[in-house]
Specification:
With 237 residues, this protein is α+β, with helices and mostly antiparallel strands. It folds into 2 domains: 74 residues, no CATH class; 112 residues, Sporulation related repeat (Alpha-Beta Plaits), CATH 3.30.70. The protein is built from 5 helices and 7 strands, in the order ββααββαββααβ. The strands form 2 sheets. The protein has a 5-stranded mixed sheet. A two-stranded antiparallel ribbon has the order 1-2.
């Protein structure tokens, strides 16, 4: 059937009009021009629906289709070539005995976990070198514990006093530990033990066969005036 014979209707009032008619004879509405692609589409619309919105509908529909296709292509490209990167951060816990712990901006600071050191003691600034240690370890002060002469054991190191500060300072700290109720408090010279860093009088509490046993005593040391106490292995040369 020829499109010239199909009745067409005014989009405003619905009165039929001729294919080449420009204005509606009933209401004066400008009628769709049925020429070219837009005219063909307008005629097809009017054959199926009694109301025609106007020629503007076709550019709008074209723009909508292009936008949908572009969005689909962009989503497909991003999904196939994109890589998700997850940022992580590992914070290494600091050594026990620093006295302070960094506070999180959202949580309260927590007490550091006790650690067991199997290497030498840290060297303090100004520590005396091993060449200055010429005398053997003096006997234990009265009332303090002497370290066993052989074998390997573990202890709770309460403080490391540089040799330059004098043995009397270390003995006084050991007596204070004993008075606070800490077991087997004493003083040893670190240079005479292979597992300790030379240059210190080491104030200790307890002589244990295992590191776990020494760990059990740390809580008491921390609460009785020695917050920097830690577990160390003491080995003879």
């Amino acid at each position: 059937m020829s499109t010239d014979k199909v009745p067409q209707y005014c989009p405003r009032c619905g009165v039929a009009y001729e294919p080449l008619q420009e204005y509606c004879l009933e209401c004066g509405e400008r009628l769709p021009t049925n020429r070219g692609t837009v005219g063909v589409l307008a005629a097809a619309w009017q054959r199926r629906f009694p109301w025609y919105p106007g020629d503007w509908i076709w550019p709008g529909l074209l723009f909508l289709v292009v936008a949908v296709v572009a969005t689909a292509v962009s989503a497909a490209t991003t999904g196939s070539s994109g890589t998700t990167i997850v940022a992580t951060q590992h914070v290494k816990p600091g050594p026990v005995g620093t006295g302070t712990a960094p506070a999180s901006p959202k949580t309260l600071p927590t007490a550091p976990e006790p650690t067991v050191t199997t290497g030498p003691l840290p060297k303090a600034p100004g520590a005396v070198s091993t060449s200055s240690v010429t005398n053997p370890t003096p006997p234990a002060a009265p009332g303090l514990t002497a370290w066993p002469k052989t074998g390997t054991a573990y202890t709770d190191v309460l403080e490391s006093v540089p040799l330059g500060a004098g043995r009397g300072v270390a003995v006084a700290r050991a007596r204070r530990a004993k008075a606070a109720g800490l077991p087997k408090a004493g003083v040893l010279v670190s240079a005479e033990y292979a597992s300790l860093h030379p240059g210190y009088y080491v104030v200790f509490s307890g002589v244990f066969r295992t590191a776990s046993a020494a760990l059990d005593g740390l809580a008491a040391a921390h609460s009785r005036g020695f917050p920097d106490a830690y577990v160390a292995r003491v080995t003879h040369p």
